[in-house]
Amino acid sequence: MKLLDNNSKVIKVYKELSRAQGVSALLPLAIVVIFFTVMSDNFLNSYNVMNILRQASVYAIMATGMTFVILTGGIDLGQGSVLALAAVVCAKVINATGNMWLGILSAVAVGVVIGGINGVMIAYVRLPAFIMTLGSLYMVRGITLYITNSTQVNVKGAELFSFIGQGFLLGIPFPVYLFIGIGILAVIFLCYTSTGRHIFAVGSNVVSARLSGVKVEKTLVVAYILSSVCVALAGVVYLARLTAAQPTAGEGYELESIAAAVVGGTSLAGGEGGVLGTLIGAVIIAVIRNGLVIIGVGSYFTKIVVGLIIVLAVTLDVMRRRFSSNR
Question: How many separate helices (H) and strands (E) can be counted in the chain?
Answer without folding.
Answer: 14, 4
